[in-house]
Specification:
The structure holds two protein chains of two kinds. Chain A has seven helices and eleven strands. Chain A has a single domain, classed as Alpha-Beta Plaits. Chain A is 20% helix and 18% strand. In chain A, a hairpin with a 6-residue loop joins strand 4 and strand 5. In chain B, 25% of the residues lie in helices and 15% in strands. In chain B, strands 5-4-25-24-23-6-7 form a seven-stranded mixed beta sheet, covered by helices on one side. In chain B, helix 8 crosses helix 12, helix 8 packs parallel to helix 14 and helix 11 crosses helix 12. Classes of the chains: A alpha+beta, B alpha/beta.
Chain lengths: 246, 763
């Protein structure tokens, strides 16, 4: 049972905890996830459209559910670019739901945090409560928009089964995104999290974010290189032609 | 808690499979259309290029479809208005086509070189090239010259295939991958899919790039090189390998021209050419017989290092001896080049040793029997699993040609070409070395009125006689491709066209026809000046380029300069054939091509440029498009694709040929071919059986199959080349270590090396 901010239980026993795993070892920061998300959800009845301001103008901007942030860590030449896609973490203890004055923000039994567009008045309280920057005000509709985990894909039995995934997961060219149930220890997301040391962001804030990030793998050392090098360094530098037949 | 949304009515939605055109990768896409409107674009899960994934641009195709910049009507520059002002009068298609046909007919009847037809990232070059050839102008090329021609020329003349579209790294077996000068571009999805595979398998990914963005972000090692010095780094790696003897001797002897003798007569004719016997065969020094022999024979023991006197007294030295002398010099030592490259010497040495370790100590052996070109069967396929890929960070430098050659030399020294774990060829590559396609260079044909060219405008010269120059050595093409200035300019030099035409150097032209090429924005070296040139007038007040036709789906900088604008369709509104005769979408394990077909209806007065080209060709009665009585042969582009045959049984689309659609690759036209493609989600893939997947420069079964299906030209098909391979051997192909251009075709060699636990040569 997952309590909401008021300490009261949500609707019944939660047995499903849906979320994403994002592999920082393979994310190249290409924004495929962000754009596929935007295009799918723009036409979605859940929270669409994702309004664009001047989409073909000089300074286009608009609403995104998922933004890829880029950081440089370390000092040259040991510096590294980290690409960091961020969207709603579907927190178990979602403060955005707690603070919502109209009840528009709610958490479903499967763990997905949604905004009821009919009840939202665009007051931004949820955005201020969210430490992950996952909620954005749509200036056209005057309501708050956020990741729905493509709730209209994942449960739509009219779609082929393999396509019942969030658009970002299906699009990702490096397969750095995974969707599944964290309450199921045998799910791919649970196994990946366990095997690769997946972590949640800012756990100290106490919102119990569900999404997990997989840290970069340690490069495998080139086995036997040292031995081989010493062997190879004894090799010939002579200019004798080897006797090899065609 | 049940707060439900009203779901979309999927019954009202249709899905269609077609091919993306948001960049040059040509991924398969699945387009969902809702009430005539594009609802969503996702990857086609069964497509050989992208296997279901899609990039940001691909998804954003919706934004392109609904862009307000789409052109909607043919436009003519208002009389009295200036180029660049964008002051147009809308005209009807009949008027536009009449106007253009009259102008083109006059050019063709007087001097066809007065038409220059250049295209941008044209994915129908097989058609636009055929059209130009049939029109009779040598002045045709596409975007390549600005982009990747350095790399393509280096690859095609060296190994028979090249980086980007003509080959791909073997992501499944590579254990060491070096990415040279690629940020986040060609190829987009395939590289990303591949990097994920490498990461999972634990392969090492080394990125050589001045900045650590895009793919480099996830590299296991980043080598922050000084821009433009990649070639020096490659040659420093070569230096380390040569110095320590970490070289695949068998590969060099069997597959390359490393043991061939090169004439050494400095300052005299013949210097630098291969020494040959009376039949034209290359000569090598046989260590068994202790004499000069035909280097293409089996069973001989060619010396890699040798200096010998030829029977005519001239001195000759092996290719490998020349290469070793040059690259063992201290000029190429890591310590010398470290400062120039910005890479520490010990890093260079370590990388070379790592590559050698993986190549020679972590060999991949697949138990796949195969037969070499001399008919010998081998029980397994050996791979030295080092793979490389390079793109514009290398090719767009002025030294990109030599840099790519150096990278290919590195691959050859390691014996890491088209085997498991290597950079592998994509059908119809590897081609012969050098390629057999020569550019048309007969002035009598080029200037002849109303006459088609015999050869294509573009090609691959290998001798001075192949250059496209007149008797006085002056260029015959407006871009000066294949002239002494730029003899090996495989895909033409589009970026030079406007400058040369305005300077009337080598000659003035009448009409410049540009298709999806915004020269005032890219595809030229100096975009601001290009705009001025387009508006430049001569002393009489006439434009230096008298007539500019721009064909595009979208408004752009260059549209403003056009005299006539022909509006094209978008990629979701038309038929397209992505052909094996063109730039193929093949993958290393499958020959493949694909189509586009209209998935949404046209909502404005535009026409597919393909249809317009067929229409113009019919009106102009170009031979390939017309019957003997002058009537049109093809109703439209769709009809052309089905029924045109380049050779008997060979058309633009290779899938489902034969009247019943049961003949892959080669067969008579199938009237239902488009339908079969659409049924198969927009593509055709012919999977290579295992024994034809590797060493295809020397794989007998592959080479014979490829010749039979016209995926590779036969020895007999040598347009205008006096170098029919000596002897009766039909199958040839070898990588070229030599830095010299051969005047002759080169021969192939077989492979029979078993897996070896240590480096070659150490025994």
């Amino acid at each position: 049972m997952t309590p909401d901010g008021s300490g009261k239980p949500l609707c019944g026993v939660i047995t499903v905890k849906l979320g994403l795993v994002i592999d920082l070892d393979t994310c190249v920061g290409c924004h495929a996830c962000a754009v596929a998300c935007k295009e799918w959800n723009d036409g979605s009845p859940v929270s669409g459209p994702l309004s664009d301001y001047q989409p073909f103008g000089a300074e286009p901007s608009g609403v995104w559910f998922n933004r890829v942030r880029h950081y440089e860590v370390g000092d040259y030449p040991a510096s590294k670019t980290i690409n960091f896609p961020m969207s709603c973490m579907h927190c178990a203890d979602a403060d955005c739901v707690t603070v919502c004055p109209t009840g528009a923000s709610y958490k479903r039994e499967d763990g997905i945090v949604l905004v009821d567009q009919d009840k939202c008045m665009g007051c931004n309280l949820c955005a201020w409560a969210c430490p992950y920057g996952a909620r954005e005000l749509d200036r056209s509709s005057g309501t708050m928009k956020k990741c729905t985990l493509c709730v209209d894909r994942i449960n739509d039995e009219r779609l082929p089964e393999e396509e019942r995934q969030p658009a970002c997961v299906l699009a990702c060219p490096t397969h750095a995104r995974f969707f599944g149930d964290f309450d199921d220890p045998d799910s791919q997301v649970s196994r990946l999290t366990a095997e690769r040391g997946g972590f949640g962001l800012l756990p100290e804030l106490g919102f119990a974010p569900v999404n997990r990030y997989l840290p970069p793998r340690e490069p495998k050392p080139l086995t036997g290189l040292e031995d081989a090098r010493s062997l190879l360094e004894r090799g010939l530098a002579s200019l004798a032609s080897p006797l090899i037949r065609r | 808690m049940s707060r439900e949304f009203i779901p979309e009515d999927r019954a009202k939605q249709q899905t269609h499979y077609t091919t993306c055109y948001m960049c040059a990768c040509r991924c398969g896409v699945k387009v969902t259309v809702d009430n005539g409107h594009v609802r969503f674009i996702e990857g086609n899960r069964s497509h050989p290029v992208n296997h279901g994934v899609i990039c940001a641009k691909g998804s954003a195709g919706i934004m392109k479809q609904y862009s307000p910049a789409k052109l909607s009507k043919p436009l003519r520059r208002r009389s009295g208005s200036e180029r660049g002002a964008g002051d147009f009068v809308e005209i009807e298609w009949d008027e536009a086509l009449d106007l253009l046909t009259a102008r083109l007919a006059k050019i063709r009847a007087t001097n066809p070189t007065q038409l220059a037809f250049f295209t941008g990232r044209d994915q129908m070059q097989a058609l636009s090239g055929l059209w130009a050839q049939q029109f009779g102008t040598p002045n045709w090329a596409a975007h390549g010259g600005f982009c990747s021609v350095n790399m393509a020329v280096a690859g095609l003349y060296t190994i028979g295939y090249s980086f980007w579209e003509f080959g791909a790294p073997d992501w499944d077996y590579a254990k060491y991958f070096m990415l040279w000068g690629v940020a986040e571009d060609h190829a987009s999805n395939p590289i990303k899919i591949g990097l994920d595979k490498l990461k999972r398998s634990g392969a090492k990914f080394v990125s050589i790039n001045p900045v650590r963005t895009g793919y480099s972000a996830i590299a296991d090692e980043w080598i922050p090189i000084r821009p433009g010095t990649d070639g020096l780094l490659a040659l420093a790696l070569v230096h380390v390998l040569l110095k320590r003897g970490l070289v695949d001797w068998e590969f060099l002897i069997r597959y390359t021209n490393a043991p061939w003798l090169v004439v050494q007569t400095p300052g005299m004719p013949g210097d630098g050419l291969f020494a040959r016997d009376g039949d034209g065969n290359p000569l090598v020094w046989d260590q068994d017989a202790q004499r000069l022999v035909n280097g293409t024979l089996a069973g001989i023991a060619p010396a890699l290092y040798a200096t010998r006197d030829l029977p005519d007294g001239r001195r000759a030295k092996t290719v490998f001896a020349l290469a070793t002398e040059r690259y063992l010099d201290d000029r190429y030592a890591p310590e010398t080049l470290a400062a120039e490259c910005g890479v520490p010497a010990q890093t260079i040495t370590r990388i070379a040793l790592e590559m050698a370790h993986v190549a020679f100590n972590e060999t991949v052996e697949l138990l796949i029997p195969w037969t070499d070109m001399l008919g010998r069967t081998h029980h397994s396929v050996i791979g030295r699993p080092v793979a490389m890929h390079a793109m514009r960070g290398v090719s767009a430098h002025s030294n990109g040609f030599q840099t790519c050659r150096a990278i290919h030399l590195l691959q050859m020294l390691l014996g890491a070409l088209d085997g498991p774990g290597n950079f592998r060829a994509r059908t119809p590559f590897p081609r012969r070395i050098p390629m057999r396609t020569l550019p048309e260079n007969d002035p009598a044909l080029i200037f002849a009125p109303n006459t088609a060219l015999k050869r294509m405008p573009n090609g691959y010269p290998a001798r001075p006689e192949d250059l496209v120059i007149d008797a006085d050595g002056r260029p015959l093409r407006i871009d000066k491709a294949y002239s002494w200035e730029t003899p090996l300019s495989a895909h033409g030099l589009m970026h030079m066209v406007i400058t040369n035409a305005v300077n009337r150097d080598p000659y003035p032209i009448d009409t410049l026809l540009l298709f999806m090429a915004n020269m005032a924005w890219n595809s030229s070296m100096n975009t601001a000046e290009v705009r001025q040139m387009l508006a430049r007038k001569d002393e009489q007040g006439d434009y230096a380029i008298p007539f500019l036709v721009v064909v595009d789906a979208f408004d752009s900088e260059i549209v403003k300069y056009a005299d006539l604008v022909l509006p094209d369709t978008t990629y979701l509104e038309r038929y397209d054939a992505i052909s094996l005769l063109d730039r193929p979408i093949s993958e290393p394990d499958a020959a493949a091509d694909s189509i586009r077909h209209p998935v949404i209806a046209l909502d404005r007065d535009v026409r597919p440029w393909q249809d317009v080209l067929v229409e113009l060709a019919s009106r102009l009665r170009l031979p390939a498009f017309s019957r003997a009585d002058g009537s049109r042969k093809f109703k439209d582009y769709r009809d052309f694709i089905v029924n045109y045959e380049k050779l008997p049984g060979v058309g633009f689309l290779a899938g489902w040929r034969g009247k019943d659609g049961d003949k892959p690759l080669r067969g008579e036209p199938n009237p239902k071919q488009w339908e079969r493609y659409i049924d198969n989600k927009g593509f055709f893939a012919y999977q290579w059986p295992e024994h034809m997947r590797y060493y295809r420069y020397a794989n007998k079964d592959y080479l014979e199959f490829a010749e039979k299906h016209a995926l590779r030209c036969r020895s007999s098909a040598l347009p205008g080349r006096g170098c029919t391979p000596a002897g009766s051997r039909r199958i040839r192909g070898t990588a070229s270590v030599s830095s010299h251009t051969s005047t002759r075709c080169r021969s192939g060699i077989h492979r029979s090396s078993p897996a070896r636990p240590i480096a070659p040569g150490i025994r």
